[in-house]
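@channel sequence for tomorrow's demo:
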Amino acid sequence: MQSDWLIRCPSNGAASIRLICFPFAGGGGYFYRTWGRDLNDQAEVYAVQPPGRENRISEDPIASMRTIVQKVVAELTPLLDQPFAFLGHSFGAALAYDAARELRRQRQPLPAHLFVSAIQAPQLPCRDSLHTLGEAEFAQAILQLGGTPEAILADRDMRAMMLHLLRADLTALETREHVEDTPLSCPITAFGSPTDVRTTREELLAWKEQTCESFSLYEFEGGHFYLKDPEQRRKLLNTVEIILRSTVPQPK
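structure tokens (generated this afternoon):
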């Protein structure tokens, strides 16, 4: 299928489940480009690619979570003909969760599993308002999170482009409204780091209120962007692979 919103990541063979990955704030789908093979072809991996990044850098980013969710869900519809799972990190986890709820609202299939990483449960009040900071304060706050290379923020043009994208993503995240509803009927696994300055263990554990199925929590070293560390990412992928293997029947 052809879609500006989706990137099909390379893999070596057919899989019995699709894994749809959602990017973190300021990031793009290319971050997940090796995951199909890194998961030993356990899943057919697709990455969501909103405007304003990588191959869509010339497009203006969207600062409304509701708008992004509606567009993503419309593009995902052709992929819902076999079992699938959602995985998102930080901003991407909020997007994945909201997309799952939108699928339920439309009476479409739900993910067989929802993986959420490095973000507090949606029923908790948002503690941050980074998107309202002035440029210098905003740039400093982004730098402290550790996800944006200093070299990018040191280049005036790249800095302006990146901060514009990040402000749009964080506006979407921090102004998003959570409406109480029944828990999702799919298992949820939360990932995080004990040294994450943005999300506590208690805030991750609160995700169990959002599912009427099983819930589990796994922690990794490395702070908010632990999955950028090759060793921690390998541990994360091993966990995802094991869970996906138990989620759907394996081909004989």
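heads up for whoever presents: The helical segments are 35-38, 65-76, 91-105, 135-145, 150-154, 156-174, 201-205, 230-247.
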